[in-house]
Structure formats: structure tokens, C-alpha cells
Amino acid sequence: MNELSNAIEVSELTKSFPSVLAVDKLSFAVRKGEIFGLVGPDGAGKTTTMRMLAGVMTPDSGGATVAGFDIVASPESAKHRLSYMPQRFGLYEELTVDENIRFYAKIFGVKSTERDENAARLLAAAGMSEFKNRLAGKLSGGMKQKLGLVCALIHTPEVILLDEPTNGVDPVSRRDFWRILYSLLDMGVTILVTTAYLDEAERCHRIALLHEGKMLFCNTPTHLKENLHGAVLSIITNNPREIREILAGNSGISSMMVVGDGLHLFVGDATRMIPELKDIITVAGLPFDSIEQVMPTVEDLFVEAVTGTARGIEK
């Protein structure tokens, strides 16, 4: 890959804390103008990675460049080219929406005309135009997150780092948030976002699955799902946990996960396993509605990668 086409380059990035290796030789590249997701549960190393890329934490070893600047040698240099929105963004609750925007615009040195144009466009995209004069402290959690994004974008950065921006946000606000992110792509903005919501990973152009500081896989969601050497079976039942117990240890199943109104199983041979599973569950006297092969989700991929054999998943 041509490095000139990358907005972020990460090489062997490593960070330890007492008794914890938080990020373990992490390497990846984010192309200009794409949404790249760091996906994984709490403790995967997502926030630590973000803080190092934002220049607020020094890595133990390895390196990275953001918008062409070395974050180890000169962490301050990249800060005027990027914006970092941590999980707890520093809004001033005693200020109005408009006053918060003006404050951050002043910090970034945005001229008043540009500020007003950007603010109007971003507030409209966030569905917050009518709330300009409302105190930030009176906003809902989802609206606070959207205001934080508006403030982070007021100077139109080249790269934006978003650390679990939709954590705890209602579904409508999550949808609005992602609509804003997609609108930025037309402006050439590069977005690196972390999330523990695996359904949000489907919205990214490419994703890196992280677990305990290590990268498991990195590619487009579609590529990763299509290149699973195996199949996902869905058992629709009101007794998913009981069925999981009787199927535990079956050599044809590498991982299982309770999903909604049933159970997802990762198997090597769907044709052979479906009738076999029907027999086992019927003999156990447990009711079920159906067993069928389904398209895998990113969640299926992650569970299989962490708890199963992850056979032949192409990176």
C-alpha cells in the first residue's frame, strides 16, 4: 500500500501498565477518507491506542504517524491536523450549545465566518439547529455526544479520533451520529473510531478486531465474513442456554453464543451438523423452532476468533 494514501500509520505500537500489557505490537494503516473501526470488548486496548495516537500518552515502543506527523518524535505537531474525542468529552454544561461551539472554535483558531458556516452545517446534520441556545447541561446523553462531535469537527480536521462515541447513546442519536460521520467523507476527513458495539463495525469500511491488546484480524467486514472457513447455524428456541449445555463438547462445534431468541453455533460442516443437532436436541426433549444456516455477523466472527478455533479466517 502506498504510504502517501494513508492518513494513519501504526507500527508495532506497544504500551504496558503495571501487570497489564494493554497494547501488544499493534500495526495497521488507515487510508485517507475512510472510516476505520477498532472493535473489541472492554480491555481490548482500544482507548490506550487512541490516547497514544492523539499524543496524550507515550508508547513504550513502536511508532505511528497521524496526518504525516510522527506522534512519538513530535506529538504536538499533529494536533492542529486532527481532533480527538475521548469517551468523556469536555463540554461545559453551564454554557449553551452555541457558546460551547464558539469556545472550541476559538481554541482551534477558526475564523468567525468559517465557524458560523461549519456550525450551521454540523448542527443541521445532528438535528440540533433549534437547540443552539439550550444549556449543554440540559441536553440528553445522545445530544451531548452529538454536540461533542460538532465541537470536535468545528475546525474541519484531516483526521478525527473517536473513542466509543456512541456508548450508552439511544438508537436515534446513534443513527444521527453515524449520518454525520458519513457526511464527512465527502470532505476527505479520515475517521478512526473505537466501538464495543459489533453491529456498528458493519458501518466501517474496514475493521481491526482487538483482543487483549492484540489484533486478531483486519479487513473489510464483508471480506472477513465471506472468508470464514465454516458456517454459522442459528437455532431458534426459548431454551438457548439449556441447548448450549447439551451441545457443549460436541466436536463439530467450535463456538456457541446466545443471540436474541436463539443460539448461534460455528460449525465446520453445516450439511452434516444440522440433522445431527436436530437428533441430539430432540432426544434431550428440548423444544426448538428451527435450525438453519445464516449469514455470519461480525459478532459471530469475533466470538469464533476469541473462543473457537478460528480456522482459516483470512486476514
Q: Which terms summarize this structure?
A:
alpha/beta, Alpha-Beta Plaits, six-stranded mixed beta sheet, four-stranded antiparallel beta sheet, 14 strands, disordered C terminus
Describe the structure.
The protein is of the alpha/beta class. The protein folds into two domains: 3-218, P-loop containing nucleotide triphosphate hydrolases (Rossmann fold, 3-Layer(aba) Sandwich); 229-295, Alpha-Beta Plaits, CATH 3.30.70. The protein contains ten helices and 14 strands. The strands form three sheets. A six-stranded mixed beta sheet has the order 6-7-8-3-9-10, sandwiched between helices. β12 (253-259) and β13 form a beta hairpin. α3 runs antiparallel to α4 (141-153). The longest helix has 15 residues, at 112-126. The protein is globular.
Question: Main beta sheet, described?
Answer: 6 strands, mixed
| SS class | alpha/beta
CATH superfamily of the largest domain: P-loop containing nucleotide triphosphate hydrolases
CATH topology of the largest domain: Rossmann fold
Radius of gyration from the alpha-carbon trace, in angstroms: 22 Å
Weakly predicted, low-confidence segments: 310-315
Number of helices: 10
How do the SSEs run, as a string of H and E?
EEEHEEEHHHEHEHEEHEHEEHEH
The CATH architecture designation of the largest domain is 3-Layer(aba) Sandwich
Q: What is the C-level CATH assignment of the largest domain?
A: Alpha Beta
What's the number of structural domains? Answer: 2
> How far apart lie the N and C ends?
15 Å
Short description:
The chain contains 10 helices and 14 strands. With 315 residues, it is an alpha/beta fold. The protein has 2 domains: 216 residues, 3-Layer(aba) Sandwich (Rossmann fold); 67 residues, 2-Layer Sandwich (Alpha-Beta Plaits).
